[in-house]
Amino acid sequence: MKLLKILLAIVLVLGNIPAQAEDPTVITVYRSPSCSCCGKWMEHLKQNNFTIKDVPTEDMQAIKTKYGVSEKMASCHTAIVDGYVVEGHVPADDIRAMLKTKPNIVGIAVPEMPSGTPGMEMGGKKDPYNVMSFDAENHYQVFKAHTEQ
Ligand SMILES: [Cu+2]
């Protein structure tokens, strides 16, 4: 009877241990050394358990060409995670969704720099925007729509 109580106590204790946090996801971020909104976006990723490999570079166009980011998809920074391209101010949740579902695409992008995206906070101003996915043939599709709140 005593043993049973001890076992029960152990089970209760184990049940209360919180599930271990996910391992940080490593993401390489190419950005111009003078880009401040890029830094704010990296901050957003850090807060969402990403580990940043920060690579300042003067020639962002070379990076975009190398990774197949067309003019239509282009924003400020270009990041690589798990073989996927992440262009611009994409929210961490959308990156995670891509890494989970592993779609057959080159990557996802928030073209240009809409206000209200992570790292582009402009007071309360929030533009509706789409996270786009793109493939090697430059086909685009809405990956996730973020409508005005
Ligand atoms: Cu930016």
Order of helices and strands: HEHEHEEHEEE
> How many structural domains in the coordinates?
1
β-strand percent reads 25-35%
CATH topology: Glutaredoxin
In CATH terms, the superfamily is: Glutaredoxin
Folded structure, characterized:
This protein has 149 residues and is α/β, with parallel strands linked by helices. Helices cover 30% and strands 26% of the residues. It has one domain: Glutaredoxin (3-Layer(aba) Sandwich). It has helices at residues 2-16, 36-47, 60-66, 92-101; strands at 25-31, 50-56, 78-81, 84-87, 107-109, 129-134, 140-146. It has a seven-stranded mixed β-sheet, sandwiched between helices. The site of copper (II) ion has 5 residues, from α2.
Summary, kept brief:
With 149 residues, the protein is an alpha/beta fold. The chain has four helices and seven strands.
Notable characteristics:
149 residues; alpha/beta; seven-stranded mixed sheet; 26% strand; binds copper (II) ion
Question: Topology, please?
Answer:
Elements: H1 2-16, E1 25-31, H2 36-47, E2 50-56, H3 60-66, E3 78-81, E4 84-87, H4 92-101, E5 107-109, E6 129-134, E7 140-146
Parallel strand pairs: 1-2, 4-5
Antiparallel strand pairs: 1-3, 3-4, 5-6, 6-7
Bound molecules: copper (II) ion (CU).
